[in-house]
Structure prediction request, 262 residues.
Amino acid sequence: MSRVTTEIKDHIAHVTLTRGDKMNAVDPDMAEAIVAAGTALIDNTDIRAVVLSGEGRGFCAGLDVASFAKFAAQDPVERVMPRTHGDSNLMQEVCMVWRKVPVPVIAAMQGVAYGAGLQLAMGACIRIAHPETKLAIMEAKWGLVPDMGGMVIWPHLLRSDVLRLLTYTAEPLTAAEGQGMGLVTRLSDTPLEDARVLAQVIAGKSPSGTRAAKRLIDVAESGADAATVLYEESREQAELIGKPHQMEIIAANMQGRAPNFG
Prediction:
């Protein structure tokens, strides 16, 4: 049974979790499918944006509780410590693979984004959520710590005291509350529709410029020193000025039309 589908249309990859009957809970097969879907997009030069969503009533309810028994039967060190995907293990790559995709990733959230689901959403550049979507760093409920990449990203989004509160308590909050904290970019009564519209807007910009912007932001957020960031600003800009995509943008603006990048 398919856990994830990918449809590429008009330079936008629509990646959908398709385990709606289980609130898209992550079992080992789902983890493998999510990572495979993201990995398949890394070298795709045709895409300009990704929309990441979950079918049914919830974006992702977290780890599939039915998988806990299987996990418990394995040696925990052997299960979580091997770096199977660069710096990550499989479960961490569920989040981190979307940071490796070279174009903007937009997550559309509804219903719930708990635990693994919230960390999956953290892999996106932008998160659009229905105001009543429930969010939670859920691992403390099970006597665990977040271990799917969230701790790489949350310190850039949340104040330390807020991150600690959410991590220590596992208490859910609404997306409306999460927006004020930094977990949610934008609220919408129709998050998937709005995510698709935003993806179309991004797809209409210079493909090379957008990819350069994502690389540059990644450098800026990496903790690099000022000299490195300033150098990367200049290097990325030098690769764009006067090139075909930039010249097409200029021509389109001057002629009052939409750009055509082929």
Notes: Residues 4-203 form a domain with the 2-enoyl-CoA Hydratase; Chain A, domain 1 fold (CATH 3.90.226.10). Residues 28-42 form the longest helix (15 residues).
